[in-house]
Amino acid sequence: MADLKTTLLGVPLNSPVLGASGTAGYGPEYEPFVDYTKVGGICGKGLTLHGQFGNEGARLYETPSGLINSIGLQNPGVAHFIDVELPKMLALKQKYGTAVIANLGGHSEEEYVEGARLLNGSAVDIVELNISCPNVKAGGMAYGVKAKDAGAVTAMVRKVCQKPLMVKLSPQAESIPDMCKAVEAAGADAVSLVNTFQSCAIDVYRRRPVFENVFAGLSGPAIRPIALRMVWQAVGAVRIPVVGLGGIATGRDALEFIMAGAAAVQVGAANFADPRAMQTVAEGLCALLDELGFASVEEARGCARG
């Protein structure tokens, strides 16, 4: 069988398949369904410094080949995560070897910096910096739209963050290559992309938007070809590892991203349709590598780039 073991930023992974933030809880929620010895790690639910309740009204809406969400980063806050949720993730790691990745958001530079400082004293393996959050000081525009803003917040967090730092990019970025170069120059150790695409749904019976905020985030198979294009661009723009996500639901999906050069992949919306999705993707990836004559995932990485 093809060897799926790999590393990300020096962290050993059972496989290049990770659970995407907000879709696998903190890991233990899926333990009854998933063989975690086949999963590389879990990106925990997105955190903000003080925690928040999230959005009111509808939060999930199915659409053909996708899922629209408007969760609003509901989370318990960084300190609560360190005290309560993190020990459960570490127990999972002790049992199965799954890496622990903390996803950190914020609505100001100060929130990002203080959150990163608190995580320094924890046992998380990697910090995934979510720059899709709105910058309240810049009128609500997300940090992840303009390369200059993304570079600035990354640099501030890099100064205090003692953990490997992976920056999660928004597809709303004005230029994916420029964004990648900006965060790399600011000290990012890796990038992950893409986050959800801004979308909209209308309830025709109510004659109103489905979501209180009107616009919400689209994920699932519908976005995969666009996400793959952006990952291809990212790999070509930087020398740091690129983690790909966006609509991955099968081993073949994962292999496309890996052949494009991705160091690892994240499985997101598929976890809601099938709680075994992370394992299914890993097993499918292994079987396809065998079929194609690859001895390991490392042999396949970037092979489509010539």
Structure characteristics:
alpha/beta; TIM Barrel; eight-stranded parallel β-barrel; four-stranded antiparallel sheet; 9 helices; globular
Please provide a written account of the structure.
This protein is an alpha/beta fold. It has one domain: TIM Barrel (Alpha-Beta Barrel). The chain is built from 9 helices and 16 strands. The chain has an 8-stranded parallel beta barrel with strand order 3-4-7-8-9-10-15-16, surrounded by 6 helices. It has a 4-stranded antiparallel β-sheet with strand order 5-6-14-11, with no helix packed on it. It has a two-stranded antiparallel sheet with strand order 1-2. Strand 8 (126-130), helix 3 (147-160) and strand 9 (165-168) form a beta-alpha-beta unit. Helix 6 packs across helix 8. The longest helix has 19 residues, at 78-96. The chain is globular, with a radius of gyration of 18 Å.
Number of domains: 1
**How many β-strand stretches?**
16
Helix-strand category: alpha/beta
Uncertain runs? none
**Helix content percent band:** 25-40%
Count of alpha and pi helical runs: 9
Q: Write out the strand line-up for the largest beta sheet, numbering strands in chain order.
A: 3-4-7-8-9-10-15-16
Could you tell me the CATH topology label: TIM Barrel
Main beta-sheet strand count, sense and barrel state: 8 strands, parallel, barrel
Distance between termini? Answer: 25 Å
Q: What would the average pLDDT be, to the nearest integer? A: 95
Question: What percentage of amino acids are in beta strands?
Answer: 15-25%
Query: According to CATH, what is the class?
Result: Alpha Beta
Q: Please identify, by name, the CATH architecture.
A: Alpha-Beta Barrel
Compute the CA-based radius of gyration.
Answer: 18 Å
CATH superfamily label: Aldolase class I
Q: What order do the SSEs take from the amino end to the carboxyl end, as H and E?
A: EEEEEEHEHEHEHEEEEEHEHEHHH
Global morphology: globular
